[in-house]
Design goal:
- The chain is of the alpha+beta class.
- The chain is built from 22 helices and 13 strands.
- Strand 11 and strand 12 form a beta hairpin.
- The termini are far apart.
- InterPro entries: CRAL-TRIO_dom (IPR001251), DBL_dom_sf (IPR035899), DH_dom (IPR000219), GDS_CDC24_CS (IPR001331), PH-like_dom_sf (IPR011993), PH_domain (IPR001849), RhoGEF_Guanine_NuclExch_SF (IPR051336), SOS1_NGEF_PH (IPR055251).
- Belongs to the MCF2 family.
Length: 749
């Protein structure tokens, strides 16, 4: 059963409105017409014991069923004193209307007043939630106000800016919450006024009028919060000074100070700290002006230092170029040596006073501006100058010796090897210097945190790709090879021994050359990046990094030219045999590098090329192929249209490849090879002379099922290849014979 409890308030003499009669007391109407006595009794006991206010009267519509009505009359008389409140039992709605007017009763009790309990609960819940929100906001506002009053104005821009930002953020947060609260209050007002909006002729009941008044009261409480403002500070005009020039900063400071004084003169409510801040800003402006003057003096000195260092470096570069461009063959004569010596001494005289200053003078004159980076630049410049002066002195001594010698006009003496040795040593020193510049000026800078933002993504963690094993090459030449070469200064004809002693270490150039295609490809991707350009600018190099990355390839090639010159001038001398052996070894390295560069370009071979043994020869040939199927020989192509194949002769196999078109630039322009056929050296034979052409020879399988007619570009090339293949086959035959002897020995034993 649904228990409906209607509560109304009456005055002592007459009924009145809810608002004016709040202290009079309550009359409770209990509708138990469809209920039992036991439930009615429990309700009366709970009301009498727990009702929170002054209860004047309880009107009960007793159960309508005959049995329950009888029980109610009987038991009510027995327990009447237990209820502790005045209770009147009513039999009908007409009896109820005698006590309470219809206008104050709801429709369920025969009255005319509209009432929805669900709506009343909804309004009451929303009203309490709104009241709690306003209370919380008021408390937080009080705390924020105390913080604003107690916070001391900061003494520097950063702290003041942070404080202003924090306070502004909190103020904006308060305003957002107030906007949300006001919106919630407006929705609550609309819900309370909903009956009047639906029916303009109706009116609000006392509960609705009270709720409406409560919401308006909270609206009045929110009005001060909506006008929240922060104390005046001098921070905003200075927030963006980091984007201004020094002069603009000074002008801005002067403007802010003027605004501060105007603010002081125009308002009596400004904190006295504003005047203090104005004085501080004025002092800051004066200090900044002095600092700018000092900084300008330092920058002027730095520019002068860089200019003088640039002059020294340019003098050194031009000097190296002059030494390298002197024709050594012409210096073999007395006239040529004297001419070269005169050129060298004239160049030394061109050094002006600013190029002759010493490093100690630099430390003393520019001590106040030298940082670690500038010190390194000065140190490198003077090391370069000292190295060049040493090269000049060596060249001058050699030229003086040559100029002092008397030449015979009838029987000219063959040029001596000293001049070649001088060139070898001077170019070796210059080579070591260039490698050091590249490693320090480019490679080391890739690990410099200050340069990291300039490195493009394609270049990050790619130092080993771009520079290969240049560091290993530099260490060998700087620590070992250059010093070893210098020990042969007085006996240049014996320098071949130095090359032979260190020929194993010179194999490191093969690794560098193998990596060169990858290095050049990466260089082309990053050549225009800011990092590369900035490094070149610091080094003051006229040539790009790619020119210096080519230096190791040029150097290993240069050795064989110098050795040939040395052999030419050392015929019949002690050490000529070692010179020839050194030349052969260097040529072997160059050939191995060249062969391996072709070998790594092979595509489509599914096995491991390393299993085929050492690559002995490689070259391009015209090839005709015949395959025997049963008793019939089949030509793959017409005999007048041979296949163009590139052959790779290994210790264990002969590979036939097709050369592809060259593409790209630089090292990437090298050809590539598509694998076509493999013949094991253990299962082939050779015919030295093929019919029809002295440049042809045949390679065939043991069963002669496959025959390849190979045509070289010349008889000389053919002879070299046939000889090498014969040598391999003979070696295999002797190895088999040796194995047979071993087997026979074991059998006889």
């Amino acid at each position: 059963n649904v228990v409906y409890v209607a509560v109304t308030v009456l005055s002592n003499s007459s009924r009145c409105t809810h608002l004016s009669a709040a202290g009079v007391g309550f009359i409770v109407v209990i509708d138990r017409r469809r209920d039992r006595w036991t439930c009615l009794k429990g309700t009366l006991l709970r009301i009498s014991g727990w009702f929170p206010a002054n209860l004047r009267l309880v009107l009960v519509l007793r159960p309508s069923a005959i049995l329950q009505r009888t029980l109610s009359d009987v038991f009510f008389k027995l327990h009447k004193d237990d209820f502790k409140v005045p209770v009147i039992m009513l039999s009908s709605l007409a009896d109820l209307h005698f006590y309470i007017e219809r206008s104050q009763l709801t429709q369920e009790l025969g009255g005319s007043q509209y009432y929805c309990h669900k709506t009343w609960i909804s309004h009451r819940t929303d009203l309490e939630s709104f009241a709690a929100l306003v209370k919380r906001m008021a408390e937080r506002l009080q705390v924020f106000g105390r913080e604003l009053a107690e916070t001391e104005l900061p003494n520097n821009l950063l702290t003041a800016s942070n404080l202003l930002n924090a306070q502004t953020s909190r103020k904006d947060s308060f305003k957002e919450e107030m906007a949300g609260a006001l919106s919630q209050g407006r929705r609550l007002l609309e819900n309370i006024r909903e009956p009047v909006r639906r029916d303009p002729d109706s009116s609000l009941n006392p509960d609705q009028l009270e709720n409406l008044a409560t919401v308006f009261f909270f609206f009045l409480s929110l009005r001060p919060l909506n006008n929240l403002s922060l104390p005046i500070t001098l921070v905003p005009p200075l927030l963006l000074t980091q984007f201004l020039s020094p002069q603009e900063v000074l002008d801005r400071v002067r403007s802010v100070v003027a605004e501060g004084h105007c603010l002081i003169d125009s308002s009596q409510n400004v904190d006295n700290t504003v005047a203090v801040k104005c004085d501080e800003l004025q002092r800051v402006r004066e200090n900044l002006t002095q600092e700018l003057k000092d900084k300008r003096t330092m920058l002027t000195q730095a520019m002068e230092l860089h200019r003088r260092l640039e002059m020294v470096c340019k003098w050194c570069d031009d000097g190296i170029y002059m030494l390298a461009s002197q024709p050594l063959d012409k210096c073999q004569s007395q006239e040529g040596a004297e001419s070269a010596l005169s050129e060298l001494e004239c160049y030394l005289e061109t050094a002006n006073e600013k190029q002759q200053w010493e490093i100690s003078t630099v430390w003393l004159e520019y001590e106040n501006i030298l940082n670690n980076e500038l010190r390194e630049q000065v140190k490198r410049a003077f090391e370069k100058k000292a190295s060049l002066q040493e090269m000049f002195e060596r060249r001058r001594v050699s030229l003086k010796k040559l100029a002092a010698k008397q030449t015979r006009p009838v029987q000219p003496v063959a040029p001596r090897p000293e001049h070649v040795m001088n060139e070898l040593l001077e170019t070796e020193r210059a080579y070591v210097e260039e490698l050091m510049c590249v490693l320090q000026g480019y490679a080391a800078e890739m690990d410099n945190p200050s340069m990291a933002p300039l490195i493009p993504a394609a270049l990050q963690n790619k130092k080993d790709v771009l520079f290969g094993n240049m560091q290993e090459i530099y260490n060998f030449h700087k620590r070992i090879f250059l010093k070893e070469l210098e020990t042969y200064t007085d006996c240049p004809e014996l320098v071949g021994r130095c090359f032979l002693d260190w020929m194993g270490e010179l194999q490191i150039y093969e690794k560098y050359c193998h990596n060169k295609p990858r290095s050049e490809s990466l260089w082309r991707q990053c050549s225009d990046c800011t990092f590369i350009q900035e490094c070149q600018k610091k080094l003051e190099h006229k040539l790009g990094l790619d020119s210096y990355l080519l230096k190791p390839v040029q150097r290993i090639t240069k050795y064989q030219l110098l050795l040939k010159e040395m052999i030419k001038y050392s015929k019949g001398c002690e050490g000529s045999v070692e010179l020839q052996a050194a030349l052969s070894s260097i040529l072997g390295i160059l050939k191995a590098v060249n062969d391996s560069m072709h070998l790594i370009a092979i595509t489509g071979y599914e096995g491991n090329l390393g299993d085929l043994g050492r690559l002995l020869m490689q070259g391009s040939f015209s090839v005709w192929a015949e395959h025997k199927r049963g008793h019939v020989k089949v030509m793959e192509l017409a005999r007048f249209k041979p296949m163009q194949r590139h052959l790779f002769l290994h210790q264990k196999a002969l590979l036939f490849c097709k050369r592809r078109e060259e593409s790209g630039e630089g090292y990437e322009k090298a050809p590539s090879y598509s694998f076509k056929q493999e013949l094991s050296m253990a299962a082939i034979g050779i015919t030295e002379h093929a019919k029809g052409d002295s440049k042809k020879f045949e390679v065939w399988s043991r069963s002669r099922d496959e025959v390849y007619t190979v045509q070289a570009v010349s008889e000389e090339v053919k002879t070299i290849w046939v000889t090498e293949i014969r040598k391999l086959l003979t070696g295999q035959l002797e190895a088999c014979k040796g194995m047979d002897l071993v087997l026979d020995w074991f059998v006889n034993k």
